[in-house]
Amino acid sequence: MKRRVVQRVLVAIDIAVASDATLEHAADLALAHGAELQVLYVKPSLDPREVYAPDKVPALDGQLDRMQSRFPDLKVDARHEMGDLAATIREVVEQWSSDVVVIGYSGRKEKKRLHRVMRHVPGSVYLVDIGRTK
Length: 134
Known about the structure:
Elements: E1 8-13, H1 19-33, E2 36-43, H2 49-52, H3 67-70, E3 76-82, H4 85-96, E4 100-105, H5 108-120, E5 124-129, H6 130-133
Parallel strand pairs: 1-2, 1-4, 2-3, 4-5
Helix pairs in contact: 4-5
């Protein structure tokens, strides 16, 4: 029997409208390979929005819980962690044995920040340019 190359797709999201495009790309990739979709939200240890703009802090209330119903044709595992984005994604990739990591970005500043993730995460990283998917 032939082993599937991609069995688990991990998508890192920020619980914002812009994350929808990233999530859709990851779900399409998982469907195409018959893979499990793993949804991860990484909350920064220190989020300045909590102090300066509390209304801008993403609300997790039920959003991660609704992932399975949003993608009924996929096996979905969703959770949130607190910490450094690159280090946390690396830890979760190792724990979940993820084959591909999908991350969305918009703009050069964010793309440069994501290079750190790409250097630290073992395996393949699939970047979604959110600016081009709107």
